């Protein structure tokens, strides 16, 4: 006969239940303790940002007044606050913007040091160059010092050797004139070297302008034969023009050779390119010697040779295919994309780029990295569009009084933000031109902007529409540009250095 298991007694149930609960409680306690032990310590709140030193009393004129702070701006380490007069109901009086510097003026010595640094060191020094740059430039400067000193004696010696005159005063005077001529050329070369990054941004335009200056210098030298008593001023002017052209040629040579090089062979490409240039120079010299024996007309011969020189220079520059986007090539690419939906190829984009526009002249109605006071007439126009760009690191607007579209960058702007802001500015330009039948004032004195431009309400609508278009089209534009071979990771748009900072709501 089987024995049935006896049911658990109440006392046993009460004994087992607490033991199971105890084990669970211990297990959970150990797990929570382990989690707390492995968790990172709570971060301390970041200290508030330190504001730059403010000159005492700089805002006294705005105490107990109706002026209100709109935003702050920083350029080259210096800050400005912008105020506008409040007339109530979140409205500001037109034309009441005031700029106040947050720093006291620099001492004359500091201004002089900054001025000298702008000529002798590159932008961003010392982080923009490798450590060996300083000793290299030191020895280079010393070498040129001795070379310049020796040139005085060698020039006078050569002139005495060829028997300029038996008179003791004449060789010295001629040597001094010749040295002054060369010295003026070196000064012009030094001053023009301050263009710096423009040799990268507007390479083709500067290269062609430099060749034109070389030809102009040759023409002025030719004119000294007609007025020999004006030899010194004409020779100095000619040498300045030719040295500026030489600086341009030297500064743009490496980027051009780099564009032609495939792989790590830029040294070989440069050497062979210089060899071809020297051979052609020797052949041209031999040709001119043979022609000179026939005593041709000097003016006619020079005119024909000048036409051949300028035409060859233009074709040389136009044949260069660059992979980066400067302002001219970027405008060509965006215009083609907005009209056809396609980005031009490298060859097409470079072929459509104009090389006649001088880089220092502003032919485009788009201004990048401008000052706040140039972009906005009054605070209301800024506050009306600021929410549109709340999530962006830039602000794009239009100033009807100046007839330009302005792109302002916030202090957190990255290279891609600059690229996007430029795309946005071109889109806004396209919308405004389309709404006005392709009429758009390029300069203040061309026409009355108020006749061609929409009202402020329509302008705000255009800016909002352009933002929607940019949100939808910017990514496809970048993708298609990369497919065509354009380098989008870096650009040569050369924006201004002003940045908006400390924006207030």
TrEMBL record:
Region (Disordered): 1-20, 36-57
Domain called Protein root UVB sensitive 6 N-terminal: residue spans: 18-106
Domain Protein root UVB sensitive/RUS, residue spans: 111-340
Residue ranges occupied by any Root UVB sensitive protein C-terminal domain in the UniProt entry: 343-495
Composition skew (Pro residues), residue ranges: 42-55
Composition bias, Polar residues: 9-19
Domain of life from the UniProt record: Eukaryota
Family in the record: Belongs to the RUS1 family.
PANTHER family with a match to the protein in the record: PROTEIN ROOT UVB SENSITIVE 6, RUS1 FAMILY PROTEIN C16ORF58
The protein, known as: Protein root UVB sensitive 6
């Amino acid at each position: 006969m089987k024995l049935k298991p006896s049911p658990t007694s109440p006392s046993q149930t009460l004994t087992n239940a607490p033991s199971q609960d105890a084990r669970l409680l211990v297990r959970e306690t150990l797990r929570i303790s382990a989690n707390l032990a492995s968790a990172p310590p709570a971060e301390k709140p970041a200290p508030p940002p330190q504001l730059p030193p403010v000159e005492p009393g700089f805002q006294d004129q705005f105490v107990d007044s109706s002026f209100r702070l709109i935003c702050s701006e920083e350029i080259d380490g210096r800050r400005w606050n912008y105020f506008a007069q409040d007339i109530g109901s979140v409205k500001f009086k037109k034309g009441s913007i005031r700029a106040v510097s947050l720093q006291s003026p620099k001492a004359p010595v500091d201004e002089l040091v900054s001025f000298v640094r702008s000529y002798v060191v590159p932008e961003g020094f010392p982080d923009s160059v490798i450590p060996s740059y300083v000793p290299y430039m030191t020895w280079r400067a010393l070498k040129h010092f001795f070379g310049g000193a020796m040139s005085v004696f060698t020039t006078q010696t050569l002139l005495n050797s060829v028997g300029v005159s038996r008179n003791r005063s004449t060789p010295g005077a001629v040597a001094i004139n010749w040295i002054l001529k060369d010295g003026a050329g070196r000064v012009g070369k030094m001053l023009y070297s301050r263009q710096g990054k423009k040799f990268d941004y507007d390479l083709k335009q500067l290269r062609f302008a430099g060749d034109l200056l070389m030809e102009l210098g040759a023409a002025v030298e030719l004119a000294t034969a007609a007025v020999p008593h004006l030899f010194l001023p004409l020779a100095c002017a000619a040498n300045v023009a030719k040295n500026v052209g030489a600086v341009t040629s030297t500064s743009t040579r490496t980027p051009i050779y780099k564009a032609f090089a495939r792989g790590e062979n830029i040294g070989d490409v440069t050497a062979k390119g210089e060899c071809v240039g020297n051979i052609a120079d020797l052949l041209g010299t031999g040709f001119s010697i043979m022609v000179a024996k026939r005593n041709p007309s000097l003016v006619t011969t020079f005119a024909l040779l000048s036409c051949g020189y300028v035409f060859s220079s233009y074709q040389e520059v136009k044949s260069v295919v660059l992979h980066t986007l400067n302002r001219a090539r970027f405008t060509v690419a965006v215009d083609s994309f907005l009209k056809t939906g396609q980005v031009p190829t490298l060859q097409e984009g470079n072929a459509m780029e104009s090389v006649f526009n001088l880089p220092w002249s502003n032919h485009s109605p788009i201004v990048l990295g401008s000052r706040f006071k140039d972009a906005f007439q009054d605070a209301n126009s800024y506050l009306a569009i600021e929410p549109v760009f709340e999530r962006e690191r830039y602000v794009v607007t239009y100033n009807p009084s100046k007839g330009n579209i302005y792109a302002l960058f916030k202090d957190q702007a990255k290279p891609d933000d600059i690229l996007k802001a430029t795309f946005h500015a071109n889109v806004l330009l396209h919308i405004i031109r389309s709404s006005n039948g392709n009429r758009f004032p390029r300069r203040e004195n061309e026409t009355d902007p108020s006749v061609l431009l929409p009202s402020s309400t329509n302008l705000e609508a255009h800016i909002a529409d352009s933002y929607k278009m940019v949100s939808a089209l910017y990514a496809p534009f970048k993708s298609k540009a990369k497919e065509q071979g354009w380098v989008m990771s870096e650009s040569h748009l050369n924006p201004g250095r002003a940045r908006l900072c400390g924006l207030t709501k």
